[in-house]
Design a protein that fits this description.
The complex is a heterodimer of chains A (255) and B (379). Chain A has a single domain, classed as P-loop containing nucleotide triphosphate hydrolases (Rossmann fold), CATH 3.40.50.300. Helices cover 39% and strands 23% of the residues of chain A. In chain A, the strands form two sheets. Chain A has a six-stranded mixed β-sheet, with helices on both faces. The longest helix of chain A is centred in the last third of the chain and has 16 residues, at 177-192. In chain A, helix 11 runs antiparallel to helix 12 (244-254). Chain A is of the alpha/beta class and 255 residues long. With 379 residues, chain B is an all-alpha fold. Chain B has two domains: 2-279, ABC transporter involved in vitamin B12 uptake, BtuC, CATH 1.10.3470.10; 285-371, Orthogonal Bundle (Arc Repressor Mutant, subunit A). Chain B contains 19 helices and three strands. Chain B has helices at 2-11, 13-38, 42-51, 53-63, 68-92, 97-121, 132-135, 143-162, 164-172, 174-179, 184-201, 203-206, 211-225, 229-253, 259-277, 283-310, 322-327, 334-342, 358-378; strands at 320-321, 346-349, 353-356. A three-stranded antiparallel β-sheet of chain B has the order 1-3-2. Chain B is elongated. The termini of chain B are far apart. Classes of the chains: A alpha/beta (255), B mainly alpha (379). Chain A binds chain B through residues 55, 58-60, 75-76, 79-80, 82, 84, 86, 90-92, 95-98, 102, 105, 108-109, 111, 113-114, 116-117, 141, 143, 157, 167, and chain B through 38, 162-166, 168-169, 171-173, 175-176, 178-182, 223, 226-229, 231-232.
């Protein structure tokens, strides 16, 4: 694969995607294309399938039907170009390891079997920790981190992957306002360098301020596009259904 | 005592074999146990070890051969089947994981007991001694058993070292592992297989009933003492080997003492000591810390309340009855007051009267000031 081919192709291309847990469909016939270089928020009510969508793109969940292309190819062929930031609560933070070690885990996909991280990898890890403002914590046991610090360690682990596409599952969940601001600054930096960021997001208030693209999702894809065109009151109503009244007011004032 | 034991081992060939076997078992079970515990698979270890019993019996019934390799292969297959059954039940039905573990453990174990009982009644099996697989009998370890154990253990530990970083990531964050495009299922099966191997390694020495203690206890104890995975695995191996060797020797010296239970006694001691005394994570240090904090808060509130009381007097060192502090909600424990007197922060007068000293006044003002700034910072 040449670089020119990659730069021409879409970041993510999803066709007819259906995912079900047991007999209950979580995603139903979802189609969408995400171009490169956007900062995209996936929003929708609880149980809309936001996390599932990200996990399916990453190959963690097997779809019932559908096709997913990442930068114009299958996931396995593109795995080194994708970085994943899972939900903070998905791991045991009492695991016996330190911050530097967690960041280095982001290199494992590049290292190959048996080989251990080199001094060069460690230098890179420290640089990534500096970017998220956590360099002083490199030797810190991970159980001693606050929620915001945990999230920044996960971001550093994604940065060290040197990916083109970043998939993040609620990177703002349970972090304070200052950390939230510094995280969004980092995401903007990534976007500026032409990379793609896709976040599961919960807060409609900050949507417009933080992101430039949005996908409204509720089992089916409701809308996708630049915020100005995709985030209309009608679309919000379609995505949030019964809770439309409350959201209507919000939509009127903000959209 | 120790000299006596060393002398006994040096002069006794059987004991040398037993010690060596226990050493190999302890190291391997301790190392793999660390991963079982961190993956929250401790109970899976218990289910697997019980599930190996029918394999031992069937292997003998089919081959009429009681060589360790045959029986251990049988045990391994049965343990493996048990593991797969647990996975299938949890994945394809709505039975919860703990129920699935309970089902597999009891079904396989019950079936195993039936087979062992039948085998014991066969004329060909009078000396098969399959009952040792229940509670373990280290004294029956032969040189060929230890040789088999050494090979198996070397393979297991070598794989663990080779795929260290993969196993570490798999245990810490399996979604991230998959997102890197690494083959999750292969490594998941490999790690489980290594844990099964560590279990069957101990069947003859510790027995199926208590083998899970050899997997869980050293790891749980080791976790208390360190925050690093590598150190935890080495320490777990060391503690496992220590308890296993001590137990095997004890049971070989005392007639009719099964090895599994005595090893478990040593393991329990190790776990109890670690739970209570390990630095940072030990319960005793928690208690001491809480006790000190409480005393500090109580002392601080005595000083602050004396400051408040003194503000209604022109003399800031005006003595007050200790009982007044009680009405302000301060617990005026005698030991706190004695401590403050000794620190020169308050002065005690006859009749249970106390007052601030100049030093105490300063300290009380600092405490109050800090409290204000702290609460403002929080708001």
């Amino acid at each position: 694969m040449t670089n020119t081919m990659q730069s021409n192709s879409l970041a993510i291309e999803v066709t007819d995607l259906t995912v079900a847990y047991q007999e209950k469909p979580v995603l139903w016939d979802v189609d969408f294309n995400v171009p490169q270089g956007v900062l995209l928020a996936i929003v929708g009510p609880n149980g809309a399938g936001k996390s599932t969508l990200i996990k399916t793109i990453l190959g963690l969940v097997k779809p019932v039907a559908g096709r997913i292309l990442v930068l114009g190819a299958q996931y396995q062929a593109r795995k080194q170009l994708i970085a994943y930031v899972p939900q903070r609560s998905s791991v045991d933070w009492d695991f016996p390891t330190n911050v530097l070690d967690v960041v280095l885990m982001g290199r494992y996909g590049h290292l190959g079997w048996i080989r251990r991280p080199s001094p060069k990898d460690k230098k890179l890890a420290i640089e990534c920790l500096e970017r998220v403002g956590m360099a002083d914590f490199a030797g810190r046991q991970i159980s001693q981190l606050s929620g915001g610090q945990q999230q920044r360690v996960f971001l550093a682990r994604a940065f060290i992957q040197e990916a083109s596409i970043y998939l993040m599952d609620e990177p703002f969940a349970g972090v304070d306002a200052t950390t939230e601001k510094s995280i969004i600054e980092l995401l903007r930096e990534i976007k500026k360098s032409g990379k793609t960021v896709i976040c599961v997001h919960h807060d409609l208030e900050t949507l417009k301020e933080y992101f430039d693209w949005v996908m409204l999702l509720n089992v089916r894809r409701v809308s996708l596009g630049p915020i100005a065109t995709a985030l209309t009151p009608e679309n919000l109503k379609r995505a949030y259904g019964g809770r439309a009244l409350f959201l209507d007011q919000k939509g009127d004032t903000r959209v | 005592m120790f000299e006596h034991v060393f002398h006994l081992i040096a002069s006794n060939y059987t004991l040398q074999i037993v010690t060596l076997g226990a050493l190999i078992l302890g190291i391997t079970a301790g190392a793999l146990g660390a991963f079982a515990v961190l993956r929250e698979q401790s109970l899976l270890g218990d289910a697997i070890s019980h599930a190996t019993l029918p394999g031992v019996g069937l292997a003998f019934l089919i081959t009429q051969d009681k060589s360790p390799l045959t029986l251990l292969i049988g045990a391994g297959i049965a343990g493996w089947l048990g593991t797969i059954c647990v996975k299938l039940i949890t994945q394809s039905t709505r039975v919860t994981k703990d129920a699935a573990l309970g089902i597999i453990l009891s079904v396989f174990f019950g079936f195993g007991l039936v087979i062992i009982t039948i085998v014991q009644k066969l004329p060909t099996a009078t000396k098969a001694g399959l009952d040792k697989f229940l509670f373990g009998n280290a004294a029956t370890l032969l040189k060929e058993d230890v040789v088999t154990m050494t090979y198996l253990s070397s393979i297991v530990l070598l794989l663990l070292i080779l795929f260290w970083k993969e196993f570490k990531l798999l245990t810490f964050d399996n979604d991230f592992f998959k997102s890197l495009g690494l083959p999750f299922h292969i490594f998941d099966i490999l790690l489980t297989t290594l844990i099964v191997s560590a279990i069957i390694l101990g069947l003859q020495t510790v027995g199926v009933v208590l083998m899970s203690a050899m997997i869980v206890a050293p790891a749980a104890a080791a976790r208390q003492w360190t925050d690093r995975l590598g150190v935890m695995v080495i320490l777990s191996s060391f503690l496992g080997a220590l308890c296993c060797v001590a137990g095997a020797i004890t049971s070989s010296i005392i007639p009719n003492m099964p090895t599994g239970p005595i090893i478990t006694v040593y393991l329990s001691l190790t776990v109890i000591i670690s739970l209570f005394l390990a630095p940072h994570r030990g319960l005793v240090w928690d208690w001491i810390r809480i006790f000190h904090q409480r005393a500090m808060i109580e002392s601080a509130s005595i000083l602050q309340n004396l400051l408040i009381l003194s503000e209604s007097h022109t003399d800031p060192f005006h003595p007050h009855e200790a009982a007044v502090l009680k009405t302000l909600g301060t617990d005026t424990l005698r030991r706190n007051i004695t401590k403050l007197v000794r620190a020169g922060l308050i002065k005690q007068y006859p009749g249970n009267l106390i007052s601030l000293t100049p030093l105490g006044l300063k300290k009380a003002k600092v405490l109050t000031h800090n409290l204000h700034t702290e609460s403002q910072r929080l708001i």
